[in-house]
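Contributing new records

If you add data, match the layout below exactly. Sequence lines come first and carry their own label; structure lines follow with theirs. Keep one chain per record. Anything else will be rejected by the validation script.
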Amino acid sequence: MKFKTFWKETFAGYILKNLLIAVGIIVVLAWAALIGLDFYTHHGESEVIPDLRGSYLEEAQVILQKKGLYAQVIDSVYVRDKKLGTIIDQIPPANSSVKSNRPVYVIINSRSVRQVALPEINDVSYRQADAMLQSIGLSVSNVEYAPSEYKDLVSDVKFHGRSILPGTRIPEGSSVVLVVGSGLGESQAMAPALKGMGLEQAKQEISSASLILGAVNYDVPPSGNDDQYIIYRQHPSAGTSLSTGSRIDVYLTTDKARLKEVFDEDKKKDDTDEQFF
């Protein structure tokens, strides 16, 4: 049988011919795919990643763009000793080789300082208060001594020259001044009239009189509306002569009618006292 007759007239030749054609097509397609893959992945081409740490994101984008790369933020944290808004870590690390048009994942430092809440450190020792403040990223810049019923215990905290209450949020890394008790003073002070005041204003008045804010009592516990509360009762009452460093307890409410009720009670009591004398 002739060779040409085998390919054209026999069934086996027909099958074999088509198999060879199929194999040829597969080989061509595979070869084309490999070439396309090399082109797509930039085979043999790579870029060295620069060290982006300490740069701002905008600066890093410009640097990477020149190398055919781009930055992608994957996380934001707060590190106190790093510049705000700068890159503090990157993946892959500096000097790694990557193909062009690939992302460089970066972690940036927060653009704003984290705020922390002042803990309740009144009536604790200076050493304990200092440790509590350090644990949340605050420090003590100075200690002031003032008359107080309880010697060597913290009676007040000041930030930028003003007394602040527990729960007040201040920037992490800030310094505060602790007012520590030195015992009751020998001089006398008069309890100020606090009714109708908010807690912060009342604390300033008490401090100005060389006295200390004692127990703070709410008729209904506040739920984020602390600034709406006013003092409707105080103990000792306004005008009472006290040793400097003594405490004044206050009672707060959002119901202004209670202020009038207490006023009427006090007036009635005063009238009764006048009749008795």
